[in-house]
From TrEMBL:
<keyword id="KW-0547">Nucleotide-binding</keyword>
<dbReference type="GO" id="GO:0016887">
    <property type="term" value="F:ATP hydrolysis activity"/>
</dbReference>
<keyword id="KW-0813">Transport</keyword>
<dbReference type="InterPro" id="IPR027417">
    <property type="entry name" value="P-loop_NTPase"/>
</dbReference>
<keyword id="KW-0067">ATP-binding</keyword>
<dbReference type="Pfam" id="PF13732">
    <property type="entry name" value="DrrA1-3_C"/>
</dbReference>
<dbReference type="InterPro" id="IPR003439">
    <property type="entry name" value="ABC_transporter-like_ATP-bd"/>
</dbReference>
<dbReference type="InterPro" id="IPR017871">
    <property type="entry name" value="ABC_transporter-like_CS"/>
</dbReference>
<comment type="similarity">
    <text>Belongs to the ABC transporter superfamily.</text>
</comment>
<dbReference type="InterPro" id="IPR003593">
    <property type="entry name" value="AAA+_ATPase"/>
</dbReference>
<dbReference type="GO" id="GO:0005524">
    <property type="term" value="F:ATP binding"/>
</dbReference>
<dbReference type="Pfam" id="PF00005">
    <property type="entry name" value="ABC_tran"/>
</dbReference>
<dbReference type="InterPro" id="IPR025302">
    <property type="entry name" value="DrrA1/2-like_C"/>
</dbReference>
<feature type="domain" description="ABC transporter">
    <location>
        <begin position="2"/>
        <end position="229"/>
    </location>
</feature>
<protein>
    <submittedName>
        <fullName>ABC-2 type transport system ATP-binding protein</fullName>
    </submittedName>
</protein>
Amino acid sequence: MISVVDLNRSFGTAHVLKDLSFDIAPGRMTGFVGGNGAGKTTTMRIILGVLEADSGQVLHDGKPITAGYRAHIGYMPEERGLYPKMSTIDQLVFLGDLHGRDRRETRTRGMELLERLGLAERATSPVEELSLGNQQRAQIAAALIHDPVALILDEPFSGLDPVAVDVTLEVLRDVADAGAPVLFSSHQLDLVERLCDELVIIAAGEVRASGTRAELLATADPVWELEADADTGWVRGMGVRVEEFDGGHVRFGADSEEQAQAVLAEAMTRGVVHRFGPVTHSLHDIFKETLA
Ligand SMILES: Nc1ncnc2c1ncn2[C@@H]1O[C@H](COP(=O)(O)OP(=O)(O)OP(=O)(O)O)[C@@H](O)[C@H]1O
């Protein structure tokens, strides 16, 4: 388990991380979501030790994280950092060297990774000759080449086509399934919704919500929708919270299923009901609500 505990960090007068705390559990994919400038990259850089916090701690299994453990984390930084003139496979072997890995084994492992990521045919091309999406795949391979004990990935899916997203996801899932904690930031909520086991939503350097997808969805206020052939303005008098109203269509929050059913019963005495039921929330709704 990697834990960040009460992290604070300022740049000049801007206080960008404020008592930020969350866990990255082993064997889980944790999505780190927040708007531009929320503090995701700053947090990741502090976890990796490339930036210092003003206060707070990064723990590994409850103890201060060590340089030795950090060296074995697979990191994909926001500022991508491969050597443009070096071929992808040589790059991977070079990174393996830095981790003291056997060159022949690293080359084999590198080719396997490139194969899985759909980049094997370009293995010997200089990185600068790859398309942006393929450079991104090469970066993912670079984060994985030393069999990392944990993964911290800054926007790993940006710029990837849907097929590449799927293969990358499989590869990351394998790392998590092997027991490593995996944290990735993303703006793409649909992806986060599909990919991650746990979510941490931050805004202005503070955690606004965290938990599993189901836990977050359960925190959302239950909302119902009613569509009838007659005007539904009377719903306002039923003691529920009307969120949207447009003639025969109304969306409202109720404290209980019974209260919502009472609205349905009333609607049926007034005319034909075309549709009635609870509204299924998406993470997108939660995200908007959390950041509102
Ligand atoms: N080296 C720095 N010097 C000054 N300000 C910085 C520095 N690094 C980050 N900041 C500021 O800290 C805040 C948080 O930035 P950070 O990059 O962590 O956000 P983010 O959530 O990763 O955003 P994005 O999704 O846009 O990448 C921003 O206001 C940013 O301008």
